[in-house]
Amino acid sequence: MRRTAIPEYFLLLLCFTFITSCSEQKESNETNKHANYFDPIINEEPYNLQLKLDKLEDGVLVMNIVLELGEDCFTISPHSEGDYTGKFHFAFEDNQMLKMSDSLIESPPSVEGIDPWEGGPVRYVKENTTYTQKLIITEEEDFEVSGIIQFTIEPRCTFEEIPFLISRKSGELRIEKISNKKC
What we know:
Strand order of the largest sheet: 1-2-8-5
CATH architecture of the largest domain: Sandwich
Strand content: over 45%
CATH superfamily of the largest domain: Thiol:disulfide interchange protein DsbD, N-terminal domain
Helix content: 10-25%
Largest sheet: 4 strands, antiparallel
Shape: globular
Radius of gyration: 28 Å
Number of strands: 11
Distance between the termini: 69 Å
């Protein structure tokens, strides 16, 4: 019985194809890995909201709400006179642990304009703005206090509600947004 020899060039071609295929797969995986790492996460909302707590002294905190607005977006300042539906507002649930102190500070200050629908003065927030609120912790024990931030984002005209939680566990203070998206 005679064995049929496979020509050497055929074996070389087969090895070359295999090596090239593996190399292309590795480069593809490396490219995908880097693409996933470096691609920015695109926010579907025309704004971004960040929350931060700073401790001033024992029992005194500063809560910062940073509102970053998309191009041509705006909202109404909490310092606007009148009863505007959807002006920037935040509040805590009723609690005995955390109380607001002093006035809410808006930086930079909102710009006064004329409301095209009501005809009266209104303060518009048209640039990235930080809201600062001093808070007093009234109890020594651990706590969880929920709150909500509300505003209408224009010109989209959508009422936004962002729930958040401030907590102290084993002496560590935290603030975090709570997902309100329904599955």
